[in-house]
């Protein structure tokens, strides 16, 4: 079969022939239909410091996908041939304290699809049945392909109660925009999102944020004034990993405010811990999705009318992956989809 492979320990990716995966008794084989390009995939293609330390070559990459089940193992009962599925890309051990307690998203032995084992940028991918999410209601294939990053957004946005709250989102990348859309859909009063990219701020406006603020031109304090806030934001969703974003967020939260932080900083940085303490601010780190509570929430949000279509801005046949990756790396885009159905 054809797969997009990190074939050599150098910049680049290769569309090449690899063996079709085989499955064990607890696994399923999935015919991949669509995939989404993630920032992780861009790091692997670029072969930066993180990728050099993490990826063993050769490796089929990719973890955002939707496909059709074509084979099931002998012990699989809840997934059937013909099911339309997405996959939870964090494979857990099932034996550690957190796994045994049902907190699988906190497994310290997590293996990443497309990072630590062959991934979904291929004609077929295999997964444990316990990592498969069956789409029981109709869903657009492009949206189903990005359930993984959508899950990051939902996990972050729903970390704290939002009904009637004023929410600040720093970072208008695709996940930040999806988190802002979830917050608004879930009952937040005002949702303000910040970035320095006019293109991505325009995307955020399409999902119905209260205010999309260019922080290269305006301060968050000015945004507060435009929204008529007197005591600051109640909830912050930090999606950028930028030191200045978290510092500004802390400065603009009300006392007792709460921060969910998904943005991954490139290096350590200082914040005003005295402000965190004296304002009684809660900071919660977010990684991945809760298995599978977040997935239930995703499906219900879409059933309830949440529209993610503005976030998807590019679609390419899998054979045109170079152009797709170039657009994704350029930054003037939302989510980019690769179509594997005709490979």
TrEMBL record:
NCBIfam families: PRK05396.1, tdh. GO terms for biological process: L-threonine catabolic process to glycine. Zn(2+) 1 binds at residues 38, 63-64. The gene is tdh. GO terms for cellular component: cytoplasm. Zn(2+) 2 binds at residues 93, 96, 99, 107. It is found in: Cytoplasm. NAD(+) binds at residues 175, 195, 200, 262-264, 286-287. It catalyses: 2-deoxy-scyllo-inosamine + NAD(+) = 3-amino-2,3-dideoxy-scyllo-inosose + NADH + H(+); L-threonine + NAD(+) = (2S)-2-amino-3-oxobutanoate + NADH + H(+); 2-deoxy-scyllo-inosamine + NADP(+) = 3-amino-2,3-dideoxy-scyllo-inosose + NADPH + H(+). The keyword Cytoplasm applies. Catalyzes the oxidation of 2-deoxy-scyllo-inosamine (DOIA) with NAD(+) or NADP(+), forming 3-amino-2,3-dideoxy-scyllo-inosose (amino-DOI). Catalyzes the NAD(+)-dependent oxidation of L-threonine to 2-amino-3-ketobutyrate. Belongs to the zinc-containing alcohol dehydrogenase family. DOIA dehydrogenase subfamily. Binds 2 Zn(2+) ions per subunit. The active site is at 40 (charge relay system), 43 (charge relay system). This is L-threonine 3-dehydrogenase. The lineage of its organism: Bacteria, Bacillati, Actinomycetota, Actinomycetes, Kitasatosporales. It comes from Kitasatospora acidiphila. The record marks 148 as: Important for catalytic activity for the proton relay mechanism but does not participate directly in the coordination of zinc atom. One of its GO terms (molecular function) is L-threonine 3-dehydrogenase activity. Its EC number is 1.1.1.103. Pfam families: ADH_N, ADH_zinc_N. Its main location: cytoplasm. Its cofactor is Zn(2+).
């Amino acid at each position: 079969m054809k797969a997009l492979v990190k074939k050599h320990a150098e910049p680049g990716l290769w569309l090449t022939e690899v063996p079709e995966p085989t499955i064990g008794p607890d696994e399923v084989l999935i015919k991949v239909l669509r995939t989404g390009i993630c920032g992780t995939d861009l790091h692997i293609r670029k072969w930066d410091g993180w990728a050099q330390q993490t990826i063993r070559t050769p490796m089929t990459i990719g973890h955002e996908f939707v496909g059709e089940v074509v084979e099931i193992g002998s012990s699989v009962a809840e997934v059937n041939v013909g099911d339309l599925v997405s996959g939870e890309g964090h494979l857990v051990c099932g034996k550690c304290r957190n796994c045994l307690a049902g907190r699988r998203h906190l497994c310290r032995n997590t293996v990443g699809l497309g990072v630590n084992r062959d991934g979904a940028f291929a004609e077929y991918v295999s997964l444990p049945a316990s990592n498969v999410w069956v789409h029981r209601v109709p869903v657009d294939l492009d949206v189903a392909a990005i359930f993984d990053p959508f899950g990051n957004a939902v996990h972050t946005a729903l970390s704290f109660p939002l009904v009637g709250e004023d929410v600040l989102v720093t970072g208008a990348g695709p996940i930040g925009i999806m988190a802002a859309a979830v917050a608004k859909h879930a009952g937040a009063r005002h949702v303000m999102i910040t970035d320095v990219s006019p293109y991505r701020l325009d995307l955020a406006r399409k999902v119905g944020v209260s205010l999309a603020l260019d922080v290269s031109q305006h301060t968050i304090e000015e945004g507060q004034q435009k929204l008529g806030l007197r005591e600051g934001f109640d909830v912050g969703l930090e999606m950028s990993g930028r030191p200045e974003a978290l510092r500004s967020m802390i400065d603009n939260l009300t006392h007792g405010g709460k921060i969910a932080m998904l943005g991954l900083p490139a290096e350590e940085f200082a914040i005003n811990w005295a402000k965190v303490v004296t304002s009684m601010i809660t900071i919660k780190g977010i990684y991945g999705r809760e298995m599978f509570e977040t997935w239930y929430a995703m499906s219900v949000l879409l059933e309830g009318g949440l529209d993610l279509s503005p976030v998807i801005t590019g679609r390419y046949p899998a054979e045109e992956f170079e152009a797709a990756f170039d657009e994704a790396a350029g930054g003037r885009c939302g989510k980019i989809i690769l179509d594997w159905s005709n490979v």
